[in-house]
Design goal:
With about 200 residues, the protein is mainly β. The strands form four sheets. The protein has a seven-stranded antiparallel beta sheet with strand order 3-2-6-9-10-5-4, covered by helices on one side. Strands 1-13-14 form a three-stranded antiparallel beta sheet, with no helix packed on it. A hairpin with a 5-residue loop joins strand 13 and strand 14. The chain starts with 15 loop residues before the first helix and ends in a 15-residue tail after the last strand.
């Protein structure tokens, strides 16, 4: 089939999220200007640069108690910092619990039964037992077409790696089984990997 998004897809559910999949999940923790801690998952997330290390995530909807966005983006806009917690399969239920539209003054760490610990380089909490966490300083927020589409970019200022996720000095995804977002209500888990060396440069 072919469809133009502006004309609608004619299907019971939008297939777009299922096409661009699997997507890594950024479990973004933040703190409001009045010291309310927050954590929520975002699957429009990725790393975007090595030097300096930088990440991005997009927020694409809004809550009635925020100004045209969600708690996470509002907090980052006010404080300039956030932390990306990497989601393992074992934490899937807690991650899903934090996806609910909690009121802005609710601490999702407590609501989801998550152990939190302070970050080292920014005034924010992180998931204590996450396989990895990236402490970030906001570099810019970009407004995309649409009513509530915002993208936050951040420079990584601190990196936490859980010791049991290190194998022979490599951060080993197989040790914790990363969770990924598919389309609709579906998720995927990474349980195996394989190497594929890059080919040499073509000779002219």
């Amino acid at each position: 089939m072919f469809y133009r998004p502006a004309d609608g897809h004619g299907l019971p559910h939008n297939p777009f999220n299922a096409i661009v999949a699997p997507r890594p999940i950024g479990w973004i923790s933040s703190r409001s200007a009045d010291d309310h801690d927050n954590i929520a998952p975002y699957s429009f997330f990725n790393a975007v640069a090595y030097e300096p290390p930088q990440v991005m995530f997009a927020s694409t909807s809004a809550k009635p108690d925020q100004d045209g966005t969600k708690d996470t983006m509002a907090n980052i806009r006010d404080t300039g910092v956030f932390c990306v917690n990497i989601v393992e399969y074992a934490m899937r239920e807690a991650m899903n619990a934090t996806a609910a539209a909690w009121p802005a003054d609710v601490d999702e760490f407590t609501a989801a039964g998550l152990e939190a610990t302070p970050c080292e380089t920014i005034p924010c909490l992180r998931v204590a037992k996450a396989p990895a966490a990236l402490e970030c300083k906001l570099t810019q927020i970009v407004e995309l077409p649409g009513n509530t589409n915002l993208v936050a970019f951040g420079e990584v200022t601190g990196v936490h790696l859980r010791d049991d996720c290190m194998t022979d000095d490599y951060f080993d995804a197989r040790a914790f089984k990363p969770l990924a977002r598919m389309g609709y209500l579906d998720y995927a888990v990474v349980e195996d990997t394989f190497p594929m060396p890059r080919p040499p440069a073509p000779q002219r």
